[in-house]
Write a structure and sequence with these properties.
The complex is a heterodimer.
Chain A: H1 3-10, E1 14-15, H2 21-26, H3 38-41, H4 43-55, E2 60-62, H5 70-73, H6 82-98, E3 105-110, H7 125-141, E4 146-152, H8 155-167, E5 172-176, H9 190-198, E6 207-211, H10 215-227, E7 234-238, E8 243-246, E9 249-252, H11 256-268, E10 273-276, H12 282-294, H13 303-310
Parallel strand pairs in A: 1-10, 2-3, 3-4, 4-5, 5-6, 6-7, 7-10
Antiparallel strand pairs in A: 8-9
Helix pairs in contact in A: 4-6, 6-7, 7-8, 9-10, 10-11, 10-13, 11-12
Chain B: H1 14-26, H2 30-42, H3 47-67, H4 73-96, E1 104-109, H5 117-128, E2 132-135, H6 142-152, E3 156-160, H7 169-179, E4 187-191, H8 197-203, E5 207-209, H9 212-228
Parallel strand pairs in B: 1-2, 1-3, 3-4, 4-5
Helix pairs in contact in B: 1-2, 1-3, 2-3, 2-4, 3-4, 4-5, 5-9
Classes of the chains: A alpha/beta, B alpha/beta.
Chain lengths: ~325, ~230
């Protein structure tokens, strides 16, 4: 059995990691530099990134390979380095995980290509599968335990990445970013995703949401998953609040205490893999771990409770309650 | 919704046809839009009236529903594509007739940022609103923005970032414009998922635009204001 499946069967919850970009930026990654280059140029910083998450209590962390697909590396003339950069990202992860003294999952991060699918755009299913397969082969060769598909907006792309994971025989988990009035940019609701993963040939070990707007909106998305009655393990990786600009730096306004509240709410809503995304630093993770270990399990939180503790939702509806704005009635054509 | 697809555009009155074109833009029907544009031109409409009353007005509805979370990116892309079909017919006619210009925008994502879906949407919606758009693509350096400002002479500079790691580069661009004394010659609009109004203010942009529809509204307001200034 793969390590993630094993931990999911043994534990009530797992703590995932926090931000990759925000942390690397604080280590001096400059604007314009692809973070994946640091896997080979500054491996000490990547080891530090991973180790900080593990030391703060993470049971699972993502590799520094989010943009490591050919479509995105091409923009830095590095499309020939896909295998190498992903393999190293996972190898560095292995090195940290194997020294942790407890089981820690190395999750090979796979982000979007940035391209739009046919018929609106030019990306095809075949090409996307090929691109993700190349990346995942690198992650697998470097020792990743699982392919971690994240921040997706289009279900076509999510599915293409899942197919690639099957092609390289890696178990997979996958999250989408619900950042537009509670849906993904392409209009997918939480209920849509919960339903669609069950119809997949190889469904994920776990599915859920990452990034998006803030921790509060992310929890609304989680309630949307839970309301479908899904029994599949859920993932919540929310941002530590909202980004603010402060003296040349980006700072997220979510405090460690707020992220602790968020972690408890996520667990009480039935989430098994709880982590952060942008702005989530090691101190947030430590606070989340502490809250999860010390606070008793509560009942399923309500939307009101979530807003009272984490802040207001960014939109009135998330498209799952039937109360959202209706598409206008067309007068003539269907 | 009636299932009769038997609408003959050429049999509709002008008013009905314009409303039908708003519907067809909403539904992203490119061929129907092209047909509608040709009919109105043949009926003696000025290209400018076709642009503003049929196309821009229709895209305004699309923009409003996108802003309100009713339409999402796939529908907007289809609508923009239909609009583009109509624009291809109108563009040479607009030039010939010396129709008034809405304004011009140079747009691109900042250095390091290769997300471009949002930026493309803004470009399409701006074109949909009648603006001329020069798209610099992704991963733009200060030098590339400045060169485009010089060669294109736009009214507006639009910058987009989707990563927190690339957002601060927008300030680098604006600071360089200030150093060169160019800042006040342009309306600077910024956008992108991790941004917010406070950030826009902090880096010295004229406005932060939450989405493509807001970008269009903001651009229109600023251009109108700019044109009201004396001696400009």
């Amino acid at each position: 059995m793969d390590l993630l499946s094993k931990l999911l069967s043994e534990r009530d919850w797992l703590l995932a990691d926090g931000a990759t970009g925000t942390n690397l930026f604080n280590m001096g990654l400059s604007s314009g530099e692809p973070p994946e280059f640091w896997n080979t140029e500054k491996p000490e910083n990547i080891l530090k990134l991973y180790k900080a998450a593990v030391d703060a209590g993470s049971d699972l962390f993502l590799t520094n390979s989010f943009g490591g697909n050919a479509a995105r590396l091409k923009l830095h003339q590095a499309q020939g380095r896909v295998h190498e950069l992903n393999k190293v990202a996972a190898e560095l992860g292995r090195e940290v995980a194997d020294k942790a003294g407890r089981p820690v999952v190395v999750a090979g991060s796979v982000g979007p290509t940035g391209e739009i699918f046919e018929p609106m755009g030019t990306m095809t299913h075949e090409l996307a599968v090929e691109i993700f397969t190349e990346q995942m082969e690198g992650l697998k060769a470097g020792g990743a335990d699982v392919a971690w598909i994240e921040t997706m907006s289009a279900f076509e792309e999510y599915a293409a990445a899942a197919e690639a994971a099957s092609a390289v025989s890696l178990p997979w988990a996958g999250t989408m970013s619900f950042d537009t009035a509670g849906r993904t940019m392409m209009g997918i609701t939480s209920a849509d995703l919960a339903k669609r993963v069950e119809a997949m040939v190889t469904p994920p070990l776990a599915f859920g949401a990452n990034c998006g707007v803030g921790a509060s909106d992310l929890m609304r998305t989680v309630l949307g998953f839970a309301a479908t009655g899904t029994t599949r393990p859920l993932i919540a990786k929310g941002n530590a609040g909202i980004p603010k600009y402060h003296e040349g730096h980006i700072h997220y306004d979510g405090t460690p205490e707020l992220m602790g509240e968020y972690a408890v709410l996520a667990r009480d809503a039935g989430v098994k893999i709880i982590g952060g995304c942008c702005g989530t630093m090691p101190e947030h993770l430590a606070s989340m771990r502490h809250a999860l270990e010390t606070r008793p399990k509560g009942s399923l939180p309500t939307a009101e409770e979530i807003q009272a503790k984490l802040g207001a939702f960014s939109s009135a509806s998330d498209g799952t309650d039937g109360n959202g704005p209706e598409k206008r009635e067309r007068r003539r054509r269907g | 919704m009636a299932d009769d697809d038997e609408i003959i555009l050429s049999e509709l009155s002008d008013d009905e046809l314009v409303l039908q074109m708003h519907d067809d833009l909403y539904d992203g029907l490119k061929e129907e839009i092209e047909e509608g544009v040709n009919i109105l031109i043949a009926r003696g409409w000025t290209p400018y009236d076709v642009l503003t009353k049929a196309l821009v007005a229709g895209m305004t509805i699309v923009g409003a529903d996108f802003r309100d979370g009713i339409l999402f990116v796939p529908e907007v892309l289809l609508a923009a594509n239909a609009m583009k079909g109509g624009m291809q017919i109108l563009k040479p006619l607009l030039v010939e007739t010396g129709a008034p210009r809405m304004g011009k925008m140079v747009i691109g994502t900042v250095k390091g940022d290769i997300h471009d879906i949002g930026k493309n949407l803004v470009g399409m919606m701006m074109e949909g609103a009648g603006f001329e758009v020069k798209d610099l693509g992704i991963n733009n350096s200060v030098e590339s923005y400045l060169a485009a400002l010089e060669s294109e002479q736009p009214d507006i500079l639009g910058m987009s970032a989707l990563l927190t790691t690339t957002m601060p580069y927008m300030k680098v661009v604006i600071d360089t414009m200030k150093e060169k004394g160019l800042r006040d010659d342009y309306i600077v609009l910024v956008g992108g998922a991790p941004l917010n109004e406070e950030f826009g203010k902090a880096i010295g942009a004229d406005a932060y635009c939450r989405d493509a529809a807001v970008a269009v509204e903001t651009a229109k307001a600023f251009v109108a204001r700019k044109h009201n200034q004396p001696n400009v």
